[in-house]
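Model: Ready when you are.
Researcher: Fold this.
Model:
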Amino acid sequence: MTPAARVQAAIELLDQIIEAARAKGAPADRLTADYFRQRRYAGSKDRRAVRELVYSAIRLCGPTPNSGRAAMLALAAKDKAIAPLFDGSPHGPAAISEDEKPAKTGIAPSWLAARITASGLKGADAWALLERAPLDIRVNALKADRGSLTLPEAGKPLAAPQGLRFPSGTQVEQWDAFREGLIEIQDHGSQWVCAALNPQPGEVIVDLCAGAGGKTLALAAATGNAASLIACDTDKRRLGNLAPRAARAGAQVDHTVLLDPGREAEALAPWLGKADRVLVDAPCSGTGTWRRNPEGRWRLDRGELERLTKLQDHVLDIGASLVRPGGVLAFITCSVLDEEGADRIAAFLDRHQGWQAEAVDIPLGRPQGAGMRLTPHHDGTDGFFVAILRSA
């Protein structure tokens, strides 16, 4: 592909990503993989160059662009090497006309940028949400130890006891250590918010929003398979992925529970008021994961954020019903918005008399309300909020 053809390919791919963002369709990484799957002629250098153009444009444009061309024009205004490639060549984009306007740049759509500012993130704090993320792994303590494990590439040891960091794009999924369950891909911040729950051997621990089970596996490793783990979720497909992952990791999960929204109490009846610890990794806007999914800011609207905060209150109340007297509830979101963090804990404590927020005992993050917030700028992690609540 010529340089101009790469720009045109990026424009076509951006058009698909913008349309999918508006329709809440497939994510950018899947669309990118599908795009190149249908264009086998594109070599590895072409794919890498187009992907770089696409994600640079996504990170640059705050509001959803009108088109892929407008997004690429915004990038061309910043990178002077791109504008001459709008040359009208057979496989390149048409020349830039005088009346064409580039897409607006910024941290996010204006309403969302205002929420980020109101939550205390400004300047470098805010822009770091869109930086490129490294790749972090957790060495699975059930099968290996960071100090003695040999990997194809040497990772940078992290503060988390089994954490290692590699450059973005490192193909760890191709390593034998990954296929054999010796390592798991997990952001450094995610490793610490799991540790904040402080799981102990012999306890009954419920992972209420387990998804595909990344944090469930971390809890199993932290307790040496000596805790009774119950993994729950409303998504049958994602929850179904846990069993093969647990088998690969050598992790023991006593029960997987598929929840029917609105009827969770029926499925969770055996554990009501009996769990020593409950982890609520609540569904959220994902504002803390924009480094990996920068088009996520084009998908979020006010109505969706309101729906998510109501859902977070709901799952917090369910989690509280499972905790035994004196037990612990951990609330986590991969969001930097106070609406999905400090505000939710304040509302919970208003609803549940006798419960108390406790200090979050992790070496990363800064206090935010009654919890702790981790950010890319200060902690080098994805954005997280975590709070620890103890029952009366």
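Researcher: Now this one.
Model:
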Amino acid sequence: MKKIALLIGLLLALFSNAQTEKKSLLWKISGNGLTKESYLFGTIHIACDATLPKKVLIALDKTTQLCLELDMDDPNMQTEMMSKMMMKDGITIESLMSAEDFKIVDDFFKKESGLSLKMMNSIKPFALSAMLYPKMLDCPMQSFENELMKVAKEQKEETIGLESFSEQLAVFDAIPYQTQVDELIKSAKSDLVRDKKELKEMLELYKTEDIEAMLRYTGRSENTMTSEFKDELLNNRNKNWIDRISKIASAQPTFFGVGAAHLGGEDGVIKLLRKKGYKVEAVL
């Protein structure tokens, strides 16, 4: 009997692993009192080709609103962004760098954007890094979020957000400014070679729809912000989202689009939703 129980346990474990190892960026949410299904899609924020797969378009047809990480249609977003973009306590970029490094980064920004670092001395360093994203691609930048919003507008459906811009930017007060500056210096000194390599590899992984592999990749990134601050960037936000996703999906069938790295792992959105009682299935 013990041997049979052990074999059954092994079979269940194998089945469970097979369930979590399915490769998909699109997941169906049902059960736990939902009258209609909602969908969860893992995006990547910048890409060369953001064409939405057919299964995503079908899911968008089945839902009645779009929910992204942020409400990109919020008319107050720009004002909120400007008020939260500055570092706290009067800290400046220049105060966190040596004079030599400041000149290197300043020259780099002048070359890449035509802007002097002195004009952006109080801005959170991550925001300056984000300005460089288009330079990391060998193509015109596209966005899955923009494509999703286009479909929502065509369907005359509302776009909402899981978190406010203030909440998202607070993450970059939790990550030390010095860490952010150090990564900015590395990017400038390497002329984005490391950044381009990592983005290219992540885009290739994204095509495989392997969310667990994408999460593992972020954990071994050479970018300290990405590899060492997973709680701040991913896990804590995932936990904050679950009750919000539950409330939104209960009100009406919703298409949720969040960064693919938020989906996988024990603290990912998929497993957290399952722990709350929802059935979350890969759409293959």
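Researcher: Key takeaway?
Model: The mean pLDDT is 90.
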